[in-house]
Amino acid sequence: MPAQTAEVQEIRPMNETAVKDYTFTSESVSEGHPDKICDQISDAIVDAFLEADPESRIAIETAVTTDYVGIFGETRGPDSITPDKMEELARGVIKKIGYDQKGFSWKTARFDVRAHSQSVDIAQGVDAEGAGDQGIMFGYACRETESLMPAAIQYSHDILRTLAEARHDGSLSLLGPDAKSQVSLVYKDGKPIRAASVVVSTQHGESVSQEDVREMVRPHIEAALPEGWMCPEEELYVNPTGRFVIGGPVGDAGLTGRKIIVDTYGGAAPHGGGAFSGKDPTKVDRSAAYAARYVAKNIVAAGFAERCTIQVSYAIGVAKPISLFVNTHGTGTVPESVLEEAINSTIDLSPKGIRTHLNLNRPIYARTAAYGHFGRAPEADGGFSWEKTDIVDALQKSVG
After folding, report:
1. How many angstroms separate the Cα of 229 from the Cα of each of 151, 180, 183, 232?
2. pLDDT tens across 358-371, in order?
3. Looking at residue 254, what is its pLDDT?
4. pLDDT in tens, 30-70
5. Residue 380 CB-density burial (10 A; 0-12 exposed, 13-18 middle, 19+ buried)
6. Cβ–Cβ contacts within 10 Å for residue 125, how many?
7. What's the pLDDT band for 119 if we cut at 50, 70, 90?
8. Fewer CB in a 10 Å sphere around the end CB: N or C, the chain?
9. How would residue 6 be classed by pLDDT, with cut points 50, 70 and 90?
10. What is the spatial distance between Cα 69 and Cα 381, in angstroms, rounded to a whole number?
């Protein structure tokens, strides 16, 4: 019989589409959302280990529900980070968020801490400077906002972040810690032009009317959106169920790593599947995703593309990336193959190379665990180092 040949079809990477006019939606959740409580506790523990020993290994998961916090996972680091210390750190996080309510309080929550030593099988690969696991990671940047982030997720974060700031300074003390936002933007010829609708649900006190909540929230929406972008009044939904008094872990259980799309690009770009919070930077789920964002942002900032997606992949115990893929979505000024060569000559994307270049072995992670890991301003102590655009010149020189 003659040999059969497979029919080869063109593959359009990253679900590329020719649609130019559409409405796109992203959501965010506040620091008081049950899943975000867990992310912040896990990352506070990561920071404590790295502050005590920058070479610590941490993979910590947290779960919360009514009057309960569970902390589980694997660690390798100083003995000073005991279960009692983890509980102390967690209570501090809950207090800072503002939970001292019936059913969930930093003072009275019951704790169950079950952390054990990291697997020696995993440790030997990481200690040899290999990746801590296999996996694929994505980074993305675009010119929709000054931070080179997709607009819908950036504005969703901004609404909730400013609401939280007002709650903490006392000007919106009648609102509670738990909140969600959702921004839908109208795109014309591939560019956002206005908000089609905005949804904000926020926890509030028993005595607060829904009309009062609406008027408290409205200025924060208007401030987050560019001038003239506010949605029609009938498309502004504030607490659409009509009441949101019971919130936080009393209303819903939470888990670390359950808000990965909120953490990244709001669905505007792919996500590799791994969560960030609770992991030290030897875990490429975290460090390589940061590096991919860093590279994508610098490519856009360098003027090589209006949009850029980076994919990088790893094998457990292997130092070099297994693959690197660049997609400029038809907006590039040079071929993607040229950009791939420029990236490889500019930055070492091995796990150790990433940690060294971005200086990740430091306690900078608790601050990432609410309002997005990307689109934030680089900080003086090295926080959000992956948001710098400091390899623009090197990339331009490499491309020639």
Report:
1. 12, 20, 11, 9
2. 999 999 999 999 99
3. 98
4. 999 999 999 999 999 999 999 999 999 999 999 999 999 99
5. exposed
6. 20
7. low
8. N
9. very low
10. 30
Other CB atoms within a 10 A radius of the CB of residue 10 amount to 4
Name the nearest CA neighbour of 263 among 371, 177, 147, 386. 371
**252 has pLDDT over 60:** yes
Strand partners, 76: 57
- For residue 157, give every residue at least 6 positions away whose Cβ sits within 8 Å of its Cβ, in sequence order, or none: 28, 181, 371, 372, 375
Where does residue 124 fall: left (phi above 0), alpha (psi -120 to 50 degrees), or beta otherwise?
alpha
Q: Specify the higher pLDDT residue, 274 or 24.
A: 24
Residue 340: pLDDT over 60:
yes
> Edge-to-edge strand order for the sheet containing 191-204?
22-29, 175-188, 191-204, 236-238
Q: Using DSSP, how many helices (H) and how many strands (E) does the chain show? A: 10, 13
Contact call for residues 266 and 150 (beta carbons, < 8 A): yes
Ramachandran assignment for 264, one of left (phi > 0), alpha (psi -120 to 50 degrees), beta (any other)? alpha
Alpha carbon distance 341, 339 (integer Å):
5
Separation CA 306–CA 128 (nearest Å): 38
**Residue 346 three-state SS:** helix
Do 367 and 44 form a contact (C-beta atoms < 8 A)?
no
CA distance 243 to 246: 9
Catalytically annotated residues: 33, 35-36, 61, 74, 180, 244, 252-253, 258-259, 279, 283, 285
Average pLDDT along the chain = 93
- How far apart (Å, rounded) are the C-alpha atoms in residues 370 and 351? 25
How far is the CA of 127 from the CAs of 132, 211, 213, 283, 319, in angstroms? 9, 57, 52, 12, 11
Distance between start and end Cα atoms, the chain: 53
